Predict the structure of Nitric oxide-associated protein 1-like.
Amino acid sequence: EEKASRNKGKAPHLRPPALVDIRLVSAKTGYGMEGLVSRLQRSWKCAGDVYLLGATNSGKSTLFNTLLRSDYCKSRAPDIIDRATVSPWPGTTLNLLKFPIINPTCDRIFRRQERLKEEAAKTEDQLSIEEKKYLNQLKKQGYLVGRVGRTFQQQKSSTEIDFDPDMLSYSMDEDPRDPPKKHEEREEFTHNEVKDARWCFDTPGIVKEDCVLNLLTEKEVKLVLPSHAIVPRTFILKPGMVLFLAALGRIDYLEGEKPAWFSVLASNLLPVHVTTLSNADTIYEKHTAQEFLKVPMGGEERMKEFPPLVPQDITLKGIGTTEAVADIKLSSAGWVAVTAHAEEELLLRAYTPKGTALVVREPPLLPYISTIRGARIPGTPAYRTKKPPSFVENLRTTGSR
């Protein structure tokens, strides 16, 4: 009663919806997708419609297209529904696309698990020529690769005879050698197929005001957004050195006692250049919008409308030579993981274009990223990076739990 009297007249406290699960997936290579479908079917319970929400260029349309071709969608729907238009330009999902979700009955769940067990038992040598070719193509695009299949296929009855009466008869004024063309109608769902259906919707991306992609042209966006798996690039910097990520980000190592490692995770099409603090401003003024720094591009005319880089000072304390202490996120251009000796204090100054976000992420997303570096490239601050072999997902681990 005392608590009720204190809260009288106040707005009710609204709790955020519970987070059900977090999944590591790649809609592009299929990794984790079968597990995601299984999790969605177990938690959804045919209770309502489903919406794919997120920022522009986060991969919603690619995810929508993959779910459309999976057991999450009614079996006949992929032949009827147009796939989403996937474009590198922010916010290009113009229409609210949707597909009907299949009802995960006990029988369908069982049949699906049986299929996943059979596919998990297959080795790569047992795959068809088409499957091997597609799998090799996916391996070139990512380290983590999975297979997305269909359990329920729409089967046409073999007893049906498909004919067009207009093709079997003609009137006196018609030439039988030039019969009228058959009127093609777009296939649609029947009323019974969708009367109680639940739908999965693809939505236009949420445009983030402080995103660097908003400043770029379509050609520049294609360079910034990774199209293949990112190969981390690690550099060792001493105090007084500067790292450029294209002309979209800059990190100055101002003060410290020992060298530190900076691992860049960004599109492999974006160049990384290391120079001295005394030369950094000259390099930026001379090479911005030129091939050397690549993005932005277009020369002096382009830079007249491009905002200048603005600084933010960052202080970090190292925790060891094998573990990064923090990520410096340069808006949507990528991020740099910083690794330093234990207890070593670093003073850094990071730059991003005015109006974009610069975030220090602690703890880092990939704390041991610097340990995958290879041998030092002689005469440079850069290390070689060995591309890890592709890992093909075992479907049984994601499908049968």
About this structure: The chain has two domains: 33-153+193-207+394-399, 214-367.
